[in-house]
Give the backbone structure.
Amino acid sequence: MKVLQNKVALITGGARGIGKAIALELAEAGANIAITDVAPQPEMESTVNEIKSLGVDALAIHADAVSFAQAQQAVDQIVEYFKRLDILVNNAGITRDGLLMRMSEEDWDLVMNVNLKSVFNYTKAAIRPMMNQKSGKIVNISSVVGVMGNAGQSNYSASKAGIIGFTKSIAKEVASRNIQVNAIAPGYVETAMTEKLTDDQRKLLTDAIPLKRTAQPKDIANVVKFLSSPDSDYITGEVINVNGGLYM
Ligand SMILES: NC(=O)c1ccc[n+]([C@@H]2O[C@H](COP(=O)([O-])OP(=O)(O)OC[C@H]3O[C@@H](n4cnc5c(N)ncnc54)[C@H](O)[C@@H]3O)[C@@H](O)[C@H]2O)c1
């Protein structure tokens, strides 16, 4: 039997990038998958078909992670369809980089809402079915810059640091219900979010990474699988750095 056989996992921002890699990894491990995203319908359908080709069931729901009402609706729809919810991966995220002097209030609010409020929205909506089942796994995708900071990313870093405080608090709140809540702080991962870097910027960055390579989405998905499985049942409130040694 596969390690996540018959489990149901929800991945926010699961249509592409790291979220898609996580969806495929958990599906390979036997979990049925729901993704929520604001990506175009054809892209969501294509991801769902790829997941289904691995022999599990999958559902795509168009939902803006910023809206609590849409998060609640999505979770209700998933529980109605699959009859349970075992794993929540809060992955949806964006960047709106700029030095503070030039950062608009809109860019601050948008990043905090998409990256941090979404984690509140989905965790609050998912915690009830998990409590009823007396088990659950929540994995929040933070970032290396949430732990070490980065010039030009004060909004993004603050949102990712906020996820860490939230993770530890909720881990304490729900530990007695057999729900484990952890975070992953990825380093530089090759996705649409990071493709804007010039070759020079990329070389500088790679030189600073002890393992001398950037991450592939699967490097992050592997750790999500571990934190979603019974192998990590005694780990909660933890932040796992997956960054090639960039920050230790
Ligand atoms: N790529 C990196 O180097 C890196 C490093 C550390 C952390 N992260 C984090 O990993 C997560 C995934 O990043 P990625 O690199 O795959 O980015 P990506 O841009 O490739 O994918 C992000 C996904 O989130 C979705 N999304 C955006 N806004 C949304 C909203 N309001 N509601 C629902 N879905 C929404 C997008 O449509 C997309 O499918 C993010 O939280 C990001 O901050 C990425």
In short: The chain has one domain: 8-240.
